[in-house]
Amino acid sequence: MVDKSESSREFISTAQAAKQLGLSLGAVQQMVECGTLAGWKTAGGHRRIRQDSVDALLARARTPGAMPRKGSASARLRMLVVEDDRLLQNIYRETFIAWDEPLDVRVVEHGLDALVEVGREPPDLLIADLRIPGIDGFEMIRRLRENPLCADLAIVVVSALNAKEIAAAGGLPQDITVYRKPIPFHELHGYVQALIAQRRRQRNAA
What we know:
By secondary structure, this protein is an alpha/beta fold. It contains 9 helices and 8 strands. It has helices spanning about 5, 15-20, 25-35, 50-60, 85-100, 110-120, 135-145, 165-170, 185-205; strands at about 10-15, 40, 45-50, 75-80, 105-110, 125-130, 155-160, 175-180. The strands form 2 sheets. It has a 5-stranded parallel β-sheet with strand order 5-4-6-7-8, sandwiched between helices. Helix 2 packs across helix 3 and helix 6 packs parallel to helix 7 (about 135-145).
């Protein structure tokens, strides 16, 4: 629950924003750098974040839905995000919008829902947590890699699990890119930009 004294301030610290959002300091700092949260730095190098941008993000977490689509779908990168945390779902959406890249994004909570979505319309990129309800990320990825139709599907895992914990749970295929939480949006942005450039080259060569 948000402290009324905090929510009444125009600007708050990174620690206060992290407390309200239930995220780490690093995640909030990345959100400011990516433009997901509005903020600025003081002369001493400390971040100050607009309270209304935190409030808006919390409000959007209560209204799930797909990111709006613009332009021709054939020229856009299709992305599917599998994440059961409602706040993180919206952080993904808002950050992707801030990137201003040609993306079509769908977000689902369960591994089984992801398999259904992939079967209905295979994405170009799947971003998944590993600890998700029902069929977990390990089983979901195993099933996808067994499907010949998904052989070219790029898969990125973003998980709180470390390498030893992932190995103890059975491991992941070597072609899976793994990032640790909090979500490393700078690295993820570079990965997405590389996929977009690859698709452009393929279209130009066709």
